[in-house]
Write a structure and sequence with these properties.
Order of helices and strands: HEEEEEEEEHEEEEEEEE
Number of helices: 2
Distance between the termini: 30 Å
Strand content: over 45%
Radius of gyration: 17 Å
């Protein structure tokens, strides 16, 4: 209850919207794409983001990166609709990603996007610093599981040991074709990840008290091979006093 109260207070706070994308017009105004196979299609229904359809084919991942760079606290809002029936692989929101700063992996990830034409997962956790929130997510095996919602803090090294606990179970969220309103608020070293569909809502909270803070970078939307999602009305805001 205390987490919900804090989230509600932050959500009602004094934010200044700095990016709005209806997702119905040309996606390249706000985003650039890692991945030579993934496709992005705009329509009046939003932005359909399709990763490649071959499981375990690394070139079939896709990542959309914001053209804008964001610093400090922020709020990210969007409508997310799952458009696949997969029981494997993940969707990821990257929050303020930067390269590790060693050539050629400079802090601005756009400067070495050509290296990510095949967007191997390791390019991201080994060569970047960022928060990662995975949702509508499943293990990469043939077991049917409830899935998970998970936070990580990439440290420019192995994926092991990057978890920011706890993990959450998705429950009755992320069914095929059901719109979900996602709100991510980063306040200092705490992440609030709020999910709402027409029937219920859920709040996930992570306090990063083990790793260095994340302060500046781009926003990324990742889909592993086989995953398809629709995005609409993406809003990114910063505290008004800092705008």
């Amino acid at each position: 209850m205390e987490d919900q109260k804090l989230f509600d207070e932050l959500n009602r706070g004094n934010w200044k919207e700095v990016v709005y994308d209806s997702c119905t017009e040309d996606w390249q105004k706000h985003w650039f794409l890692d991945g030579k196979v993934a496709k992005v299609i705009n329509s009046e229904d939003g932005m359909l983001f399709e990763a490649g359809d071959t499981f375990l084919e690394e070139s079939h991942h896709g990542v959309l990166w914001s053209e804008e760079v964001f610093e400090g606290d922020l709020k990210i809002e969007y409508e997310f609709t799952r458009m696949d029936n997969e029981t494997r692989c993940v969707n990821i929101l990257y929050i303020q990603a930067q390269g590790i700063g060693e050539a050629p992996y400079t802090e601005d990830v756009k400067e070495w996007s050509d290296l990510r034409e095949i967007p191997l997962m390791r390019w991201y956790f080994e060569k970047m610093h960022t928060y990662h929130v995975s949702y509508a997510a499943f293990e990469n095996n043939d077991e049917v599981t409830p899935g998970y919602i998970r936070c990580r803090r990439y440290m420019g090294g192995p994926l092991d040991g990057t978890d920011v606990l706890p993990d959450y179970e998705p429950g009755d969220f992320f069914a095929y074709g059901v719109p979900h309103q996602i709100t991510l608020i980063k306040k200092d070293q705490t992440l609030y990840f709020h999910i709402k569909n027409p029937e219920r809502e859920k709040l996930c909270v992570w306090m990063n008290d083990l790793f260095p803070p994340i302060t500046k970078g781009r926003i990324g939307l990742r889909q592993m091979f086989t995953r398809i999602s629709n995005y609409k009305d993406i809003r990114i805001s910063v505290p008004a006093k800092e705008a």
